[in-house]
Write a structure and sequence with these properties.
The structure holds two protein chains of two kinds.
Chain A lengths: L3 E4 L2 E3 L6 E7 L12 E6 L6 E5 L3 E2 L7 E6 L2 E6 L8 E7 L6 E2 L3 E4 L1
Parallel strand pairs in A: 2-11
Antiparallel strand pairs in A: 1-3, 3-8, 4-5, 4-9, 5-6, 7-8, 9-10, 9-11
Chain B lengths: L2 E4 L3 E3 L5 E8 L7 E7 L5 E7 L6 E3 L7 E6 L4 E6 L8 E8 L9 E2 L3 E5 L2
Parallel strand pairs in B: 2-11
Antiparallel strand pairs in B: 1-3, 3-8, 4-5, 4-9, 5-6, 7-8, 9-10, 9-11
Classes of the chains: A mainly beta, B mainly beta.
Chain lengths: 111, 120
């Protein structure tokens, strides 16, 4: 099974400051179709996870442009250029190149 | 607009079965796969399985093979998760989510979650 490892596990950020989360996979997430099956989700307190970024760097509809994703192969990063109060929650990376799909342990962002 | 609404919380005894429903609206039900993800208290999400409502084809994480059954009723745009031989470590919030393409992890709409508590 593919293991997803996130760092850090928690992050305390002042509003307006940047934040960065790393995610590493034990196997390459690059598929033969040229796509990389790496996603970022945010789970706000008491809510279902919500999609932020798909296939490394594509922002989902309605996601603010302060969120960006980058990386390749096995190493990926989610960046928030200027954290806002509404960004609090737990961030998860997830892979879908191989069943079972797997999530990282999560990174808790606090303000 | 797209909505995915799940059935309410359940309390079950060890060894029993539970059936969770996931009703979709606002889109063509058979155009999207339905995935099931669970989250134990204080833990991260754990992917369980997917169902293609158009064909009935399913795929499961190996740890759930033999205990999970996925079905759907396309006439009411609803998918179902059946989990049998419940254990205390099956206590979790169970989510359904839709995905358009095979192999994609782009879960663009999630249900609100169904808490299943397994306790004697």
């Amino acid at each position: 099974d593919i293991v997803m490892t996130q760092t850090p596990l928690s992050l305390s950020v002042t509003p307006g400051q940047p934040a960065s989360i790393s995610c590493k996979s034990t196997q390459s997430l690059l598929q033969t179709d040229g796509k990389t099956y790496l996603y970022w989700y945010l789970q706000k307190p008491g809510q279902s996870p919500q999609l932020l970024i798909y296939e490394i760097s594509n922002r989902f509809s309605g996601v603010p442009d302060r969120f960006s994703g980058s990386g390749s192969g096995t190493d990926f990063t989610l960046k928030i250029s200027r954290v806002e109060a509404e960004d609090v929650g737990v961030y998860y990376c997830m892979q879908s190149i191989k069943v079972p799909y797997s999530f990282g342990q999560g990174t808790k962002l606090e303000i | 607009q797209v909505q995915v609404v799940q059935s309410g919380a359940e309390v079950k005894k060890p060894g029993a079965s539970v059936k969770v429903s996931c009703k979709a609206s606002g889109y063509t039900f058979t155009d999207y796969y339905i995935h099931w993800v669970r989250q134990a208290p204080g833990q991260g999400p754990e992917w369980m399985a997917w169902l293609n409502p158009n064909s009935g084809v399913t795929n499961f994480a190996q740890k759930f093979q033999g205990r999970v059954t996925l079905t759907s009723d396309t006439s009411i745009s609803t998918a179902f998760l059946d989990l049998s031989r419940l254990r205390s470590d099956d206590t979790a919030v169970y989510y359904c989510a839709r995905v358009m393409h095979f192999g994609s992890g782009k879960f663009d709409s999630w249900g609100q979650g169904t808490l299943v508590t397994v306790s004697s």
